[in-house]
Design goal:
The structure holds two protein chains of two kinds. Chain A is mainly alpha-helical. Chain A is 69% helix and 1% strand. Classes of the chains: A mainly alpha, B mainly alpha.
Chain lengths: 588, 87
Amino acid sequence: MSQFAINLLFVGGSFLLYIGIAIWAKAGTTSDFYVAGGGVHPVTNGMAIGADWMSAASFISMAGLIAAGGYANSTFLMGWTGGYVLLAMLLAPYLRKFGKFTVPEFIGDRFYSKQARLVAVVCLIVASVTYVIGQMAGAGVAFSRFLEVDATMGLIIAAVVVFIYAVLGGMKGITYTQVAQYCVLIIAYTIPAVFISLQLTGNPLPPLGLFSTHIESGVPLLERLDQIITELGFRDYTDDVDNKLNMVLFTLSLMIGTAGLPHVIIRFFTVPKVADARWSAGWALVFIALLYLTAPAVASMARLNLMTTIYPEGPAAQPIEYDNRPAWMATWEETGLITYEDKNSDGRIQLYNESEAFAPEAESRGWNGNELVVNNDILVLANPEIANLPGWVIGLIAAGGLAAALSTAAGLLLAISSAVSHDLIKGAINPKITEKGELKAARISMAVAIVVATYLGANPPGFAAQVVALAFGIAAASLFPALMMGIFSKRVNNKGAVAGMLAGLGSTLVYIFIFLGWFFIPGTNNLANTPDNWLLGISPLSFGAVGALINFAVAFAVSHATEEPPVEIQELVESVRYPRGAGSAHDH
Amino acid sequence: MSGHSYDAEKYWKANLRLIFGSLIVWALVSYGFAILLRPLLAGIEFGGTDLGFWFAQQGSILTFIALIFFYAWRMNRIDEQFGVHEE
């Protein structure tokens, strides 16, 4: 069987499974559509949160970025897990006690203002759509390779599939579909990693293999990797970073963004009890950690494998000839995600870092520049091929990557559609809308969101994980502070919350757009996105943490300059703090 | 809760103390050991690199899991102690 047929079998088979589950669990009432009737077990819920959470960014893109950046990109690992600590302690149990469907609903009730609810809807939509763009970009890469179609066609296929099951299933469909997707994606991620870890270190557990001895050279794996890449002028893989401020802010931004993302928060409305909301966060992180502890191993091993493929005799000897390159390189070249240019016309592939420090060495070796460019987003997908693993493993990783992208996209679309139908239309425009009308509005808004995200996903403002990081910055700066102040402060009032959210969202968006283009349209940025231009060395990806600080400061200042919230609101804050008396999630 | 406002306040304080303590550990392993204090751990050899690198790529994640389960377990006990748990 050809590799194409195997890929088709795995991808097609897993899709049939998800769509089958979605149809089987087709939502009947609005309550089912949004929160699965409130009866999901913490472990099941944790697994669904895991699938929802781990997107194309985690699965396809993250290890590639760590492989390229080494220690400096550990920020993704800490940032996307540390947020669960904040969720479990600062938000989830209290929002579960509050017991409504959506995040804007809490903000609207707590800050007793329709205006606050609408601002929250805007924040939610901006963050979620940015996030979906990243998913679509990742799914596009995966489809274009495995179905051997071009990137645009891949995007369109992804959009159609997401639409079908998100629209049919609603939350209940998604909860069980996502459990299936979690299983597919975690198996797909870990199996190749186990093989590769065994090959390189003899240790079947990749997280341990990462710190084990490299069989071939007899030195620790990371030490061997450092040796090879520094000999080619690259930065030491395990080297410390100079700009610690940016590293701290980026990690913080990812953490508080995690806690502020509405599609994850609504998951905590689906557990029966407040205590279960706390356990759910723990279980979610256990399931997420299975991938996140494997990712750094995948990153360093893939980087090492790539280097030894190009330099089989070691970095001091000649690299391989282009005509003798492995087959995977040729197939990825067809997607345009690997490019080769024989700059010194010697027929060999020189892969090195064109730094000033390395220039004399490169010149003495007759090299005219780096000749191979590998897109970071392909590393995980190409990993089994680089390690010469059997065809079914490659098919499996295709199915896993798509599961990751599609599950998250579906969860986000649900959050967007419930914000539009429940908060915008039912909450503000037409409170008398029927259940049927509300469901219809939810489905139409999903369709619109998919079209917008697919359009922008064709020209994403960065690698999948970077686009997703932007979404986190936006959620961190806008929603998280409002939610946290709503629970932990009785003094913050409607005016403070609205001013805070607008200041946080506005400052973050402006900072991002200045460097990455207005509304992410390529070419409309005011300044080049380089560290010299950044304010205090803070990258646009890290600015969410600063935006959150601005949000908190403005909200407190405005609240203290204006009147206290009414007594019944202070009582509401009091009531969310105590678990007793939490029914299941309910409508007004 | 109105009849037990004194207890309610104590319950909330106990929760805040627990959160505060947990977040100190949370910050220490990630922002501390893995980033800002990494140079201090540079001397501690760990699998071809130093302990700070391990905290950045694995140690912090493992600590986060332990923290959440600890918090959930401890909070459930505090809920019962103050009689605010769900039936």
